[in-house]
Specification:
Length: about 550
């Protein structure tokens, strides 16, 4: 599908309304006239009917939640990307509800996290929800097989502790039926994962947490009604966001900086995937920047514009920052939720806005053509590892730091020293570029804080945007943008040495560390193949201390 940008400010109101009407009625001609592409897109527009489809299912979901409530103390939701980010947001925004099981999202294959969950929960009182649209997601299936085996080893019948959420007819559904899972729920086949927040993907976890599903759908319905094409364009809540994003993109401002109330921070991760994976392809893209520490206007480049999502009653949280940004001529939109349930309305606003933005930009917002690059590389490296017991990789060693590293051919240096490499990496970055810091490390608050500080350092010295993601989470989120979007990104991947013995993934003859490392190295090679400048830094077992030394190295390298 070739990109053909339609600039909304140069379209008539009737033309824009007609485009929006096509999206809301499930007409793929909003995006393309090519027959093959139209057929593909037609099977990805079911999300526009989510409210009417889900209302009849409220009683079923609520009844199941009551059943679970009576028999379990913990729920571990296993999923990646579109199957995990909205449940993660709900869990943090609403928190534990009285009388309902504790709800944890597991969207990593990190061995430390797997081990901690195993230690903290009572397997007999834990329900595992295995959420994978395709039924083949490697991280999710590995989690499922590992915990299934742990239950068997403990003499506990596993089937009654597992629930599947997957497409009808998927390999996971077949296995769940054969193994006697407690329940199988269907992911709607005509809805892609990142557009599925208002389907079973969002409402099943909401029910299990004890949330009011009718209220959630009513809020979503209100936003659909506030986004109808019959409304004057300037009063259309979703359409205006789409125009805001597209017009800035056309003007070369491609860094959509999303700030939120701290209570809504994980919702920004859901938006990040929606924007990056939907619009980052064909060498174009809108680059979502989330999770930064707020700064003064002087640290932001001219390629930025801002959206803030907050809670009513807490408007003063960033009032001074908003005033400073506007004074410095940065565009800023602010949205304030009357209550936490309006997060379901925001799903509608952003899904419609991003889909409409895709129509304006001439991209298919429902595919992710470049994600497969890393998957293929990962499979290749794991296959090699299973044959030889080794990965086909040899790191340079920075002897002063005791840290290994690799660099892509696009990042040429005369001699392999990490300090020289990092300095050159930033010296060659264009003013409109951005840096992706990609950490295949445990997703812990302390590490998140470290990388937030590193992002602040880079932004302050280079006035550039930074994106941070824990691996493998980002592979299912921003990874499409990194490999298929604009060429302005450059990347640093972080891994650490495994600790033996690690947990074996049943039936695979590999550990979780092996899988995680293969994904990291696979993405390094996929980014290199896509001609993106990329460094792979391999830390030791005591990676926390190595990171402290790396911060000093980055600080020195950025003194240009």
């Amino acid at each position: 599908m070739k990109s053909r940008i339609r600039r909304p400010s140069r379209m008539s109101e009737e033309e824009k309304k007609a485009l929006l009407a096509k999206i809301l009625t499930g007409d793929p001609e909003a995006f393309t006239t090519e027959a093959t592409e139209k057929e593909k897109i037609a099977h990805r527009l079911g999300w526009v009917k989510a409210v009417e489809r889900m209302r009849p299912k409220i009683s079923e979901l609520s009844a199941f939640a009551e059943e679970v409530k009576g028999g379990f103390e913990e729920i571990i939701w296993c999923g990646m990307g579109g199957s995990s980010l909205f449940p993660l947001a709900l869990a943090e925004i609403f928190g534990p509800q009285p009388g309902y099981p504790r709800f944890t999202v597991l969207d990593t294959d990190d061995p430390e996290v797997i081990a901690r969950i195993e230690e903290e929960v009572s397997l007999e009182k834990t329900l595992f929800v295995i959420a994978s649209k395709s039924g083949t997601t490697v991280e999710t299936l590995s989690q499922y097989r590992y915990f299934w085996k742990k239950l068997e080893d403990a003499g506990i019948e596993p089937g009654s502790k597992f629930v599947a959420l997957t497409d009808p007819g998927s390999p996971l559904e077949k296995e769940a039926q054969e193994k006697g899972f407690l329940r199988v729920f269907h992911h709607p086949p005509d809805v892609g994962g990142r557009y599925a927040a208002l389907t079973e993907v969002g409402l099943l976890p909401a029910a299990l947490m004890g949330l009011d599903l009718e209220k959630a759908l009513s809020k979503a319905e209100e936003m659909f009604e506030a986004s109808l094409p019959e409304l004057p364009w300037e009063y259309n809540l979703s359409a205006w966001l789409a125009e805001f994003m597209t017009e800035h993109f056309v003007h070369g401002k491609d860094k959509l900086t999303i700030m939120t109330d701290p209570l809504l921070r994980t919702f920004a991760l859901w938006i990040e995937q929606l924007v990056a994976e939907s619009l980052g392809k064909n060498f174009v893209g809108i680059i979502p920047v989330v999770g930064e520490s707020p700064g003064s206007p002087t640290v932001y480049g001219p390629d930025r514009y801002f959206v803030y999502i907050g809670l009513r009653g807490r408007e003063n949280l960033y009032r001074r920052l908003f005033s400073d940004l506007r004074e410095a001529d940065f565009a800023l939109k602010t949205y304030f939720l009357e209550d936490r349930y309006e997060i379901f309305a925001e799903c509608v606003r952003w899904e419609l806005a991003v889909a409409l933005c895709g129509a304006f930009m001439g991209v298919n917002p429902f595919d992710e053509p470049d994600v497969v690059r890393t998957k293929q590389k990962t499979r290749e490296f794991l296959s090699e590892f299973k044959k030889t017991g080794e990965f086909p990789v040899e790191f340079y060693l920075d002897e002063a730091l005791g840290i290994g590293f690799l660099y892509a051919e696009t990042t040429k240096i005369e001699y392999p020293r990490l300090s020289a490499l990092v300095k050159k990496f930033f010296q060659e970055m264009p003013p409109w570029g951005y840096v992706g810091l990609l950490a295949f490390l445990p997703p812990e608050p302390e590490l998140e804080e470290f990388f937030r500080d590193l992002r602040t350092l880079i932004r302050g010295r280079r006035q550039c945007s930074t994106i941070f993601g824990f691996g493998p989470r980002y592979l299912h989120s921003t990874g499409q943008l990194f490999k298929g979007g604009t060429l302005s990104g450059r990347f640093v991947i972080f891994t650490r040495k495994g600790r033996r013995p690690e947990q074996i993934i049943p039936g695979e003859d590999i550990t979780f560390w092996d899988l995680q490392f293969a994904q990291a190295y696979g993405d390094f090679r996929a980014l290199e193949e896509a001609k993106r400048p990329v460094i792979h830094i391999h830390l030791g077992e005591n990676y926390q201390e190595d990171l402290k030394r790396l911060y000093d190295l980055f600080e020195e390298a950025l003194r240009l």
